[in-house]
Write a structure and sequence with these properties.
The complex is a heterodimer of chains A (67) and B (470).
Chain A: H1 6-16, H2 22-39, H3 54-66
Chain B: H1 10-18, H2 24-42, E1 45-48, H3 50-65, E2 77-81, H4 108-115, E3 119-124, E4 144-145, E5 148-152, H5 158-165, E6 171-175, H6 182-188, E7 191-194, E8 215-219, H7 222-232, H8 250-253, E9 262-266, H9 276-291, E10 295-299, H10 304-329, H11 336-344, H12 350-358, H13 360-370, E11 376-380, H14 400-408, H15 412-417, E12 421-428, E13 434-440, H16 446-459
Parallel strand pairs in B: 2-3, 9-10, 9-11
Antiparallel strand pairs in B: 1-3, 4-5, 6-8, 7-8, 7-12, 11-13, 12-13
Helix pairs in contact in B: 2-3, 5-6, 7-16, 10-11, 10-12
The chains are: A mainly alpha (67), B alpha+beta (470).
Domain Amidase (chain B): 26-450
GO molecular function, one term (chain B): transferase activity
Function (chain B): Hydrolyzes indole-3-acetamide (IAM) into indole-3-acetic acid (IAA).
């Protein structure tokens, strides 16, 4: 997963309806870059059928195992 | 045990009032005297409601005189992080934007404590909109650590940490989205319980991240946290994410021996780059737990950096979404660091956010598999004791995110996985600052953490130490 560039961030913030200056876009790019890099090994690798609610399924299984 | 009511534990003062050894007014007056002494130094309270508190205490005493006891905390004075809605009260959320916001509902967690009989002392300071780990607040000033006034309390439950440590309130609600209960518990030398996502209703608590937010107490002991958890946990029609089902007897769990339990010690990440004093205290804590009968084994956890990154993606997007209207209409009314962090969420694509959410289930499954052979994992809350207010006052400077990441790197993986974690005071640095360790459990197994933490506190006195006014 590639970290967004300041130019891309500028455009995304515009689309989100909260425009930011070029300076802020650069600062955001530096702030969130490590998160993108940290998640890069996972991004794009998840199986097709996986959905967010799987978390609740795993959590519930842990709870019933405990009970 | 001290005879000054404010110095007693929550459990002890509740028993003392119930046994008529002293009144709610005496307990409340004792807290108010300490608040008057400490507040100018700490800035821990957002609002002090002395007259109303004494009137409520008198009402509690009058009710009791007629033979009526409201509940397990009848007449016990408390104050909470100023983000729990209390109908008719101003709830600032530590912000300028909500400086005059009057809640029209009462949060479920708070209502359950009220139903148990608590008396409101006022409200406690916090980081603006609970979005920051240090305890700075550009609108209301930083909260100061009672163990060293030049040092941070940690955040975002900054007032809760300071007020419990200085014995201004018997306990306080905090909230933990990225470490905001455990961090102030660690830096201020108190006990803090981050609950499992779904354990306590979040209805009426200011939202920051709907996937990560958790409600929990900061208190003077594990026993007190067990009492509070038992009162607040469980299903709530106003919060469908609060899980139904029978609750364990948390107080009973806290009385059990830990003989034969197995505690996992991570082989990496949580033991890397620790301040030497924190590392030594971790070793001493493990030694105490062994003396109490627990076994320890090394555990190899999945890549925690990936969990931290995923947590950051989820938190940034959800926080930005909650705040979008104000980001458009009132950006000038945010403090610089909170505005900066909220803007970060604008730059994360929807697909990246959903990937981070989709991975949460497999990541939790992998973690649970890695800890299958242990009852809990022990780890530092942070790699250092409390930094100074000056050195961590990074605002929206270019290195702000790096400072935030360094402080929260041991807490965020737990938030991403939605796990429970108990922070307990485990020692002091040579400079007199507290150091805490976190016990991380399986989903919904707070009882195990309370059991281990209480055993540690029966063997040590770190949680009983009280800071002295400078």
């Amino acid at each position: 997963m590639t970290r967004p560039s300041p130019k891309a961030i500028h455009a995304m913030a515009d689309v989100a309806g909260v425009p930011v200056s070029a300076e802020v876009a650069t600062r955001i790019a530096n702030s969130i870059g490590p998160a993108f890099e940290g998640f890069a090994a996972v991004a794009g690798t998840l199986p097709f059928d996986l959905e967010p609610a799987t978390f609740l399924v795993v959590q519930a299984a842990a709870r019933s195992k405990k009970a | 045990m001290s005879t000054e009511p404010a110095l007693m534990s929550l459990t002890a003062v509740a028993n003392a009032i119930a046994q008529k050894r002293f009144s709610s007014r005496e307990a409340t007056q004792s807290c108010l005297e300490r608040i008057a002494q400490w507040q100018p130094r700490l800035n821990a309270f957002m609002a002090i409601e002395a007259d109303a508190a004494l009137a409520a205490a008198d009402a509690a005493d009058a009710l009791f005189a007629k033979g009526n006891l409201s509940g397990a905390l009848h007449g016990v004075p408390m104050a909470h992080k100023d983000m729990y809605y209390d109908a008719g009260k101003v709830v600032t959320c530590g912000s300028k934007i909500r400086r005059d916001f009057v809640a029209t509902t009462t949060s479920t967690a708070l209502q359950r404590l009220k139903d148990a009989g608590t008396v409101r002392l006022g409200s406690l300071q916090m980081v603006e909109f609970a979005y920051g780990p240090t305890g700075h607040n550009s609108h209301y000033g930083p909260v100061h650590n009672p163990w060293g006034l030049d040092h941070i309390t940690g955040g975002s439950s900054s007032g809760s940490g300071a007020a419990v440590a200085a014995r201004l309130t018997f306990a306080a609600l905090g909230s933990d989205t990225g470490g905001s209960i455990r961090m102030p518990a660690h830096f201020c030398g108190v006990t803090g319980l981050k609950t499992t996502v779904g354990r306590i209703s979040r209805a009426g608590a200011m939202p920051l991240s709907q996937s990560l937010d958790t409600v929990g107490p900061l208190a003077r002991s594990v026993e007190d946290c067990a009492l509070l958890l038992g009162l607040m946990a469980g299903a709530d029609p106003d919060d469908p994410t609060a899980v139904a089902g029978p609750l364990p007897d948390y107080a009973a769990a806290a009385r059990e021996s830990i003989k034969g339990l197995t505690i996992g010690v991570p082989t990496a990440f949580y033991v890397d780059d620790l301040d030497p004093e924190v590392a030594a205290i971790l070793d001493e804590t493990i030694a105490v737990l062994k003396r109490e009968g627990a076994n320890t084994v090394q555990v190899e956890l999945p890549d925690q950096r990936q969990l931290t990154a995923a947590c950051q993606l989820v938190l940034a997007v959800e926080a930005a979404a909650f705040h979008k209207r104000w980001l458009i209409e009132r950006p000038q009314d945010y403090g610089p660091q909170v505005l900066m962090r909220l803007q970060n969420g604008l730059a994360i694509p929807g697909v990246s956010y959903l990937e981070a959410m989709r991975w949460r289930g497999p990541a939790l499954a992998a973690h649970l598999a890695a800890v299958a052979g242990v009852d809990a994992v022990i780890a530092p809350v942070a790699p250092v004791a409390a930094p100074t207010i000056a050195e961590s006052d990074v605002g929206n400077s270019p290195d702000a995110e790096a400072v935030i990441q360094r402080l929260t790197r041991f807490t965020r993986p737990v938030n991403y996985l939605g796990l429970p974690s108990l922070s307990i005071p485990t020692g002091f640095t040579r400079g007199g600052l507290p150091v805490g360790m976190q016990l991380v459990g399986r989903s919904f197994d707070e009882a195990m953490l309370l059991r281990i933490g209480a055993a540690f506190q029966r063997a040590t006195d770190f949680h009983d130490r009280v800071p002295k006014p400078a």
